[in-house]
Design a protein that fits this description.
The complex is a heterodimer. Chain A is built from 17 helices and 8 strands. Chain A is mostly helical. In chain A, 53% of the residues are buried. Chain B has 12 helices and 57 strands.
């Protein structure tokens, strides 16, 4: 018995002395998650995440309400963006989503540099420019150089002036264009945007890079006209070096197939139009033009006996008696949001409207009317709608050589394109939107999102500096740098 | 009562066969042993006798047994016994609190036995301390409290933990109120961390730590995410209260320094019942039935129906129309600002046609609009236990079955618990102990929680008074189950589908077991070796039908979870020879803890065929995700106990842990403790009325590690093939271990023959380098980061006072008060944090918990109202709505100022009545449900202004010259409530969290011995009880005590779509054979 007892004791002593912290590193290594990635690993989630956010959260739930594309009715939310009532939360999802995906883009860029893959690097730079521009257009000054560096210990990044950011993103696009090597193909899994194009995938990406470049230069055309116009001309005059979109086939549209995980932002299609209607402005304009997009975008209104009364919207920012609307107004048509659904990054139509505006202003060579008409046709192509041959025969649609007309058509061309309708309105003041007495904010269109609550809370000092730099108040009426009109 | 050993042995054999515990079955199935018993009975003679105490009072219930055999009897109420014994047998008389007496039978047939009280007296209660070391209470230099079995069985709840409510000062509970499983976390001495998962006390059952963390589906958070969390219960609730012998609550770090990191928040040591040595077979049957009734509803308004409040007819009156009708445009809305119920008629929904009726129908309130959904819950629990023992060892086994139908239709759970526990002296000086428990917990459906389209709380918040719940009973509009019947809103899913078609099921098998060996090498040297396992296999299914707001074409997920923890430890103890002056013992030991977690989730996002829940029915690729977590902690420790003259006791402990989860170089941490106990009443002469006074002091440090895999960079899974995404949580390669330093002083006094007693403790706990995940601004590229968070202090007083105001032979009244006050203060914030003065600790919705030096980890910040110097709310002169502040401001502290309990126990002969009240005073609670119900006009608070059709906010407007004048601007009623109670207005939606609850009333009757003897019973007790019977509180929703789950945890001070918490009424029957 004694022997047994003491051998147990000896056994314990032996096992205790064997201190096994050596295996700790292996134990504390996650057997599931990846530690390294390829240049393409992050690309599809980035593309899906950003386009999904831009269609749903940025456009459908926010700026489309400012721009009278969508009118909530009945007033389940008593106030609402269509009445220019800005909630504290308005900028939070934009901020969080774009910075979140920018972090992924940043890592993608690093991985592609490490792998020496110039095409993925150029794609990363393009997406980075696009996303940062999206952010700064909405907020003004934002964290930029010090952003995305939590892992380097910067948890309260400094904000930078919008002009600095714009300068940098234009350089990203310049650099991206110079990096592309169209002789090489993208070697990893096909991307969601252009992945189905095989050998011309890289060429398509390059066109997107330069097209975005044009969009951003146009945005600066009021605040720094000389440089912007010069660069625009450089790009347009040298399509071999700077290829841009030349037909609707080049459109940067990510299609949600509806097959998980590439699903549409609206799991149930009825929620796309639930308690949402179209504005009188929107419907009447398309009616006036006899525009074939109207039936695609809108449902018909019905009277109280459910009889078809044609297309009829309600005034955006309507004032209080909802009982006075004695019909069921036209609502957004589910066609637009049902899978396969289009998430627009940028289209050929926009390029044509950029050219139309610039030729109208005499800043580039070419006929504004041609670009206007090509832009209009291309805008219908986005939705696979053929432009009737007699479309411009109508007195209302015939080219009148006004900026207002160009911008009004462009407004419809930018339907469903993140915040672009609103941004172009802020830049040009077009289209002219009819105003209702029920508006808040003194009836003034918000021109900016206030910074999100989280930023004020987490990064108070830098936030305060940024607000001071921008003129002292963090509200929806503070104009960003490029907004000089 | 006389025993029949043959029957007893038969029972035992059957029982052991069933439990199949190999390690112990040898003992009882030994054939020679049984034969001995039979032989003894055949040749014995009958001995009678009487047992009395030193005052010649008869003692009832004294165990009388034959030494060396496994049978015996007990004395009756007159102290008399009768027993058949062999010739020359030696009888042992044993009674709790008294010294044993051994008497050899020499010839006399009648024995007179006198028992004397234990020399140490009853004060020397034995408590189980860290590592399972049994200690005399008086030797302990730290605060602890022992609770007996009755605490858990008298007024039983579905989770035994709830039965401690109000009974232990300094113990508080974080409950999720999220369904029948009702996960509860026990928090001792205040929240050290804002991460609720890190505040829970360690739960140890017979030396085996069990899983007490929240167990959620891990799907989303509580606010409108893609899916909603489900409370799948935790290992704590598995334990059968009938099996609990006692629970010792070790509050301070001094108590737990030896247990290591995991007990940094204190420990709850559960000792399960075991068979008593030298007692014949005992069989106990317990049956419990209870019903759950919802006791408190939100303050719903019942005077106005659906409507935006902005649709008027040609007479300028509010009207209702389900769809556009001759009365006007459709006004159906989730808002409750429609017309008043005045007996008028409108075109409304017709449930028979499923559309607008052709005739106008009565505009009325339906009381069942929300309440009609719920039902009375029932719980049935039966348990059967067997116990026996001889002088070599003992054995106990029990089986329990519970069946619960919760207050929400088609939800509930079933639980089976099988436990065996045995010990045996396998050789001289070597004792083998074993405990084996098997638990099965299953549920066909548990509720989805939080605020989300497919949670029932969302429906309850948004549905209108004019919508009869019965109109929803038809769940589907088509046979093929593709279109749900949701007639009033595209946001609201059909509530009956939410319980009958949205399914969260679980089936979990848990095995816990340990095997330990106690070896006595000599009188001085002892060794304990133990290995314990806690292994759980859980299978869950989440089913979502077609046409839910968040799942258009259905969803199916299976989660396979396996978790296992193995603890192996030993303790070698050398006890010095006893002397009168100075005694000591020295121990040293080690522990290896290894934790493995494996999880595989596979989901079909979209079903090809509706209503078929199989992965093979996925309409796209099945997405699989695996999540593992491995962890290992090695430890060595030592303990020295010294006593001087049996009145001064000193314990010194030291422990070092090595944890796999921390970076090399930071992964070893040492912590010591010292505990001093001084029996003042023995040291100096005290007045006679002072029975006992003890002073105690304790100082301890405890270290703590983190969860695995947070010290290096990983990419997260993405559902896109061949893809990954960056991790939103920033890792921390320099993480340091947490360190908690505690100091405690206490006094324990018992006076007037134990008629009055009190125990007061003061403690001061400082937590340094807390490991926390704190929110980051997304501009950093991350949404949160792991940090060592600085220094947090918890200081407080815990007191317990008990009295026996009445103590007569037949009637007794015992009353106990508990009080605990804790003050939480941030002393320092992490050095590395930029800025340094402020750290956002948690954010839930629009409430942020912001830590500032000098503040508390429960400080809630958010928007309030803007007020002038007089404190009047400032309104915007143009809109007539409250001006929005620029800055978030302090809105209150989530923690209670103090908590207390009052327990009463009345006994009259066999009758016993218990009444417990407890309360929590102070603290704030933000209510998401309240915000939404006010914004939507569903509460009585939203009635003012409706008759006038406008409301003028009570406050002032600022004039151009900066002065203020009264606000006179009329605002549309819905606009006013929508803005005044907007989600971000924390001030308007926050309440005083004070509550007092009538926690327990139980009345029981134990049948007298005379009755029992007639019916050959050992005991028969019947009782009736009620729990959570009434709540006094200002909180307008269901229950201020519970919050809702937010992912896998809860943010203090924030309610997010809670579910009702019911009162429980029940009956209990306990029979012992």
């Amino acid at each position: 018995m004694r022997k047994i007892k003491y051998s147990i004791l000896a056994f314990i002593a032996a096992t205790t002395l064997y201190n096994c912290t050596a295996e700790f590193e292996e134990i504390n290594t996650d057997p599931n998650r990846l530690e390294t990635i390829s240049p393409a690993s992050l690309l599809n989630p980035i593309l899906y995440g950003l386009t999904n956010h831009n269609s749903y959260s940025a456009w459908h739930n926010r700026t489309a309400h400012f721009m009278q594309g969508i009118v909530p009715y009945p007033s389940n939310d008593a106030l609402g963006y269509h009445r220019y009532w800005i909630s504290d939360a308005i900028g939070q999802t934009m901020w969080n989503n774009h910075y979140r995906w920018l972090k992924n883009i940043d890592e993608m860029e690093k991985a592609s540099i490490e792998a020496g893959d110039v095409n993925y690097q150029a794609i990363a730079l393009t997406l980075k420019a696009w996303s940062f521009a999206n952010l700064t257009d909405v907020f003004g000054d934002i964290p930029f150089e010090e952003a995305l560096k939590g892992d380097e210990g910067i948890v309260k990044p400094k904000f930078q002036r919008q002009q600095v950011i714009y300068q940098a993103v234009l350089e990203y696009l310049e650099q991206a264009n110079s990096l592309y090597d169209t002789s090489k193909s993208l070697i990893y899994a096909p991307d969601l945007l252009y992945g189905d194009r095989g050998a011309s995938t890289v060429a398509s990406w390059q066109k997107l890079t330069n097209s975005l470049h044009l969009r951003m230069l146009l945005r600066l055309s009021d605040v720094q006209p000389a440089e912007s116009i010069a660069k625009i001309n450089t790009i347009l005059n040298d399509p071999a070096t700077y290829p841009v979109f030349s037909s609707s086939a080049d459109d940067a549209i990510l299609i949600n197939t509806g097959v998980s995980p590439n699903t549409t932002p609206w799991p149930r299609i009825q929620d796309y139009a639930a308690d949402k209607k179209l504005s009188t402005f929107f419907v009447d304009q398309l009616l006036e033009w006899n525009d074939p997009r109207l039936p695609f975008w809108a449902t018909k209104a019905t009277d109280k006996d459910k009889n078809d009364i044609g297309y009829k919207g309600i005034p955006s920012g309507y004032s209080f008696n909802e009982g006075a609307i004695d019909y069921n107004p036209s609502a957004p048509n589910n066609n637009t949001a049902v899978a396969p659904m289009k998430n627009i990054i940028m289209t050929y139509a926009e390029i044509e409207f950029i050219k139309a505006e610039l030729s109208f202003k005499g800043l580039i060579t070419g006929a504004a009317e041609t670009h206007f008409k090509q832009g209009t046709e291309a805008a219908m192509d986005i939705w696979n709608i053929a432009m009737p041959t007699n479309y411009f025969d109508n007195e209302k649609t015939a080219y009148k050589n006004t900026l207002e007309q160009i911008m009004l058509q462009k407004y419809f061309a930018l339907y469903f394109t993140d915040n672009q309708q609103w941004l172009e309105f802020r830049r040009t003041g077009y289209p002219e939107l009819p105003l209702q007495p029920g508006l808040y904010n003194d009836g003034k269109m918000p021109v900016r999102y206030p910074y999100p609550q989280d930023v004020k809370r987490q990064n108070t000092e830098n936030y305060q500096d940024a607000v001071n730099n921008m003129g002292g108040s963090d509200d929806a009426n503070t104009r960003v740098w490029w907004d000089v009109k | 009562m006389k025993k029949n050993p043959r029957t007893a042995a038969h029972f035992l054999k059957m029982m052991l066969f069933a439990s199949a515990t190999l390690s112990t079955s040898y003992i009882w199935s030994s054939p020679t042993h049984s034969q001995n018993v039979i032989a003894l009975q055949q040749t014995g003679k009958i001995i009678t006798g009487k047992v009395v105490d030193k005052n010649n009072q008869p003692l009832e219930g004294v165990t009388v047994y034959v030494k060396g055999a496994d049978y015996g009897t007990e004395t009756n109420a007159s102290g008399v016994f009768e027993l058949e014994v062999p010739e020359n047998a030696t009888l042992v008389f044993s009674y709790l609190g008294y010294d044993d007496v051994t008497q050899t039978i020499t010839g006399a047939n009648f024995l007179n036995i006198v028992l004397h009280e234990d020399t140490e007296g009853q004060l020397d209660e034995i408590v189980i301390t860290a590592l399972g070391i049994a200690r005399e209470e008086k030797q302990l230099g730290y605060s602890q409290q022992k609770l007996s079995n009755e605490t858990f069985t008298d007024a039983r709840s579905n989770n035994w933990v709830d039965n401690m409510k109000g009974k232990v000062p300094g113990m508080s509970f974080t409950s999720s109120s999220s369904g029948p499983m009702g996960s509860t976390q026990v928090v001792l001495r205040g929240n050290r961390s804002v991460d609720s998962n890190k505040n829970g006390a360690l739960i140890v059952v017979d030396g085996i730590p069990i899983n007490s963390g929240m167990s959620s589906s891990g799907e989303g958070n509580g606010y409108l995410s893609s899916d909603s969390p489900v409370d799948f219960g935790n290992g704590m609730s598995d334990i059968n209260p009938e099996d609990i012998e006692s629970v010792t609550v070790l509050k301070g770090a001094g108590a737990t320094a030896l247990y290591g990191s995991r007990a940094a928040n204190g420990a709850i040591m559960i000792t399960t019942k075991s068979g008593k040595k030298n007692q014949g077979l005992g069989i106990t049957f317990n049956s419990n039935i209870s019903i759950d009734v919802i006791q408190h509803w939100p303050d719903w308004q019942t005077q106005y129906g659906s409507g935006t409040g902005k649709a008027f007819n040609s007479n300028g009156e509010l009207y209702y129309s389900y769809q556009a009708s001759e009365d006007g445009a459709a006004t159906q809305s989730n808002l409750g600002f429609g017309p008043r119920f005045n007996g008028q008629y409108y075109y409304q929904y017709d449930p028979t046609t499923g559309t607008m009726g052709t005739q106008r129908t009565l505009w009325q309130n339906y009381d069942n609009a929300r309440k009609g959904f719920w039902r009375t819950g029932t719980t049935l629990t039966n348990s059967l236990s067997f116990a026996a023992g001889n002088d070599k060892g003992s054995m106990r086994a029990s089986v329990t079955y519970s069946d619960n139908e919760w207050i929400m239709p088609n939800t509930g759970f079933e639980r089976v618990a099988i436990s065996t526990k045995g010990d045996y002296e396998i050789a001289k000086g070597i004792k083998l102990n074993s405990t084996m428990n098997y638990y099965n917990r299953s549920s066909g459906n548990l509720p989805s929680t939080g605020y989300n389209n497919h949670t029932i709380s969302y429906f309850m918040i948004l549905t209108n008074a004019n919508n009869n719940i019965d109109w929803y009973r038809k769940m589907w509009l088509d046979e093929g189950k593709t279109q749900l019947n949701s007639p009033f809103s595209t946001y609201l899913d059909n509530p009956f589908a939410l319980v009958n078609e949205v399914i969260n099921s679980t089936n979990s098998d848990t095995f816990t077991g340990n095997l330990s060996l106690d070896i006595d090498f000599s009188k001085n040297l002892k060794l304990m070796m133990r290995s314990g396992i806690n292994s759980q296999n859980e299978f869950r299914e989440l089913k979502r039908p077609y046409d839910l707001v968040k799942f258009a074409t259905g969803y199916y997920e299976r989660q396979m979870i396996k978790s296992q923890e193995i603890n192996t430890d030993f303790l070698l103890t050398y006890k010095g020879n006893e002397t009168d002056h100075f005694n000591y013992s020295l121990s040293a030991g080690g522990n290896i803890m290894s934790n493995k977690y494996r999880r595989m989730d596979a989901s079909a996002n979209g079903l090809a065929v509706p209503d078929v829940y199989k992965l093979s029915n996925a309409s796209s690729n099945v997405y699989t995700e695996s999540a593992d977590a491995n962890k290992k902690v090695n430890s060595i420790y030592a303990l020295g106990s010294f006593s001087y003259r049996n009145l001064l006791f000193l314990d010194l402990t030291a422990r070092n842990d090595w944890s796999s989860t921390l970076p090399q170089g930071n992964n070893s941490y040492f912590y010591p403790s010292a505990n001093l106990s001084f029996i003042l009443s023995d040291a100096v002469a005290m007045p006679l009325w002072i029975d006992f006074t003890k002073l105690r002091a304790s100082w301890a440090q405890v270290g703590n590690d983190s969860q695995p895999y947070i010290i290096s960079k990983y990419y997260d899974n993405s559902p896109f093939v061949g893809s990954a995404i960056t991790d939103n949580q920033l890792f921390n390669a320099d993480l340091k271990p947490e360190e908690t330093t505690s100091t405690e002083f206490g006094i324990d006094a018992r006076l007037f023959g134990d008629r009055l007693g009190f125990d007061v403790a003061y403690y001061n706990t400082v937590s340094d380098n807390q490991i926390l995940s704190v929110p980051l601004d997304y501009a950093t590229g991350y949404s949160s980061q792991y940090i060592n968070a600085g220094k947090v202090q918890n200081r407080g007083i815990e007191a317990m006072l008990y009295l026996s105001p009445i103590k007569t032979k037949n009637f007794q009244w015992k009353t106990t008060f508990t009080y605990a006050k804790n003050k939480n203060e941030i002393l320092e914030l992490a050095a590395g944090i930029e800025g340094g003065e402020e750290q956002v600790l948690a954010t839930s919705g629009t409430v942020s918990i912001i830590g500032k030096v000098g503040g508390s980890t429960g400080d809630m910040y958010g928007y309030g109202f803007v007020r002038n110097e007089e404190g009047k709310i400032i309104y915007d002169a143009n809109t007539g709505l409250p001006v929005r502040p620029e800055e978030e401001t302090y809105q209150g502290n989530a923690y209670a100022d103090w908590k207390g309990g009052w327990m009463n126990n009345f006994t009259y002969k066999g009758w016993s009545l218990g009444v417990t009240l407890d309360g929590s005073f102070g603290g704030k609670l933000y209510s998401q449900s309240y915000h939404k119900m006010m914004e939507h006009g569903h509460l009585n608070g939203s009635l003012p202004g409706r008759e006038d059709g406008y409301i003028i906010g009570d406050g002032v407007v600022q004039n151009a010259d900066g002065s203020y004048s009264p606000n006179t601007k009329k605002v549309a009623v819905p606009d006013y409530y929508s803005e005044y109670y907007r989600r971000a207005n924390v001030e308007a939606n926050t309440f005083d969290a004070t509550w007092v609850k009538l926690r327990e009333i139980s009345i029981s009757y134990s049948f007298p011995k005379s009755f029992l003897e007639r019916h050959k019973l050992k005991g028969l007790t019947v009782s009736a009880f009620g729990r959570n019977l009434y709540t006094w509180s200002d909180f307008p929703i269901y229950d201020p005590e519970t919050a809702a789950l937010n992912g896998a945890n809860m943010v203090p001070g924030v309610e997010m779509g809670q579910l009702p918490s019911p009162a429980t009424y029940g009956f209990n029957l306990k029979v012992s054979l």
